[in-house]
Each structure stands twice: as C-alpha cells, then as structure tokens.
Amino acid sequence: MQQRSVRDLMRVRHGLVVTETSTLREVAERLIISECDLMAVTDERGKLAGVVCESSIVRALLANPAQDVTIQSIVIRHAESVRLDANLTAVLPLFRSCANTAIPVVDADGFVCGLLMRSDVIRSLLYRQTESADTATASVSVATKDPAAPSAIINSAAVFTPPKKRNIHAGDAVAKTESDQPRPHFLQADEAHRVLWAAEDRL
Questions:
Q1: Is residue 16 one of the residues assigned to a domain?
Q2: Which residue among 28, 133, 186, 195 is least enclosed by CB atoms within 10 Å?
Q3: In terms of residue numbers, what domain contains 76?
C-alpha cells in the first residue's frame, strides 16, 4: 500500500480548535455538535497550548460556573501531538490507548493545523486490509490465466489425470477370443448328406 502521511488523513476543522480565552459554555456547545470528545487549545499566537476533554468540561459544568468562566483552568497542558508531515504508520501506536480519540496536528513551527481522528485511522486500516485482499485475489487470477506462470503449470498438471488402463473382464476376454477364431465353414447340401450317412454307418 502506498505510504500515507498525517496530512492526508487529518481533519481541518476550526470548530474543534479553540483558544485559551474561550468560555466554558462556548466550548461545551461546540462539543455537543461535534464528533469528537476533545478539542485542541491554542494560545494567542495560534500555537498548541494543550487539549480540553469532554469529561473535564462536564466536571466544570457540574460546579455551576459563571457565564464568563474560561477553560484555562481545565486545559491539559502536556498533550501529545503529531507533525503534519509525519508518516501515518509511525503515529498509529498513539491510538492503541483508549484515551486518545483525537490528536492535534501541528506544523514545524508548532501551529495547530487540525486534528487526527481515531475513527479516520480505523477507517484507513480497514481500507488497507481490503485493498491487500483485493490485490492478492487479482494476483491469483492473473497467474491462473497466464499459461507461462509457474503456478498455472502446476495447477494444470494437478488437474490433468492420465487415462486409466482398461480392465478386460472375463466376458470381454471370451468375446475377444471368439472373435479371433476363424469363422466356421458351411458344407454344401450333397457333402453334408455324405457326412451324415458316414456317421450313421459308424453307428
């Protein structure tokens, strides 16, 4: 399969990237209509400051905060991120943990470009397996159709069965033996009479 990069699979969604000064209620409303349970958080320059997850927002809302409370106090500062030009295979281990449903994607300068979603990674893995299976099936079909392919020669040899020797039964042997014997000679009428008369004299 052709190597893919994070750039090919990431989602560029401004709704899933918020700033540290965003209010708690604003971020909660965005999470309600999103497919993800976390958001990337940027500082005033647009660089990654951390992530805020859905469970932290729920705990903060249970405290009945004021309308203008921001998310600065619930931002997870030590968050994992992946580079925009990274090979997708190299970042797959990050999704083996159930905790990572999405990972922020940053460029070489640390600016947030989007999110790499776990659901998209799973879809990519399924596509890769399907593509590999289709390729293997196509290879087998081509090898079978190609008479010069070694596998085709082996298959042809396995399919071909030399004719069995014909078993001659007793009845067939007798019939064959009889057919090989010379046909009987029928006597003329006068000669037949003489043969019969000679036989009667011997009696």
A1: yes
A2: 186
A3: 6-119
